[in-house]
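Here comes an entry:

___
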Amino acid sequence: MDNIVEVATKEFADKGLSGARIDEIAALTHTSKRMIYYYFTSKEGLYVAVLEEAYRRIRSIEATLNLDDLEPEAALRKLVGFTFDYQLANPDFIRLVMTENIHNGEFLAQSKTIQQLNVPVINAVKAVYDRGVKAGVFRRGLDAVELHMSISALCFFNVANRHTFALIFKRDMTDPEAMEGRRKNIVEMVARFVSK
């Protein structure tokens, strides 16, 4: 079943929900359409399972960052850097999120687990932020969800818009040196935004 979700992830990321084909997923996993429908009830059910696994994967890695062991600013920088690195290394995750936004979150809304999967990251951001406020290094009045949204947006853009931005502004959005510079800029922007 894990293999089905893995192959389906690539299929949905590459072709979107409407373009993905259960026949193709069945062929690549050496199973049958009937078996896929048995486990996931429908193409949409498989797509929801793919979304859940995509969020589960990033959140489970975030949970291993040990942010509580670091000073608040170092913890924030580590979280931002991780987000950048993960999204850059996992363009399928970005494409799945983009596809779900095209569908106005319709399938995320059907998931019984996705909201719960995302609670820990907000708690982690809030814990780092609150520690920084208490230590006198972060300014007061920021919302953890807003901060998470800003981090996500800055990191997301580099994958979601890499082709159009590269063509319009003649920038190589795949050059490792350029991406390392971009990463440093994003980490610094967030750190300065939060700092007193």
The chain has one domain: 2-194. The chain has ten helices and no strands. Residues 114-134 form the longest helix (21 residues). The two ends are 49 Å apart (CA to CA).
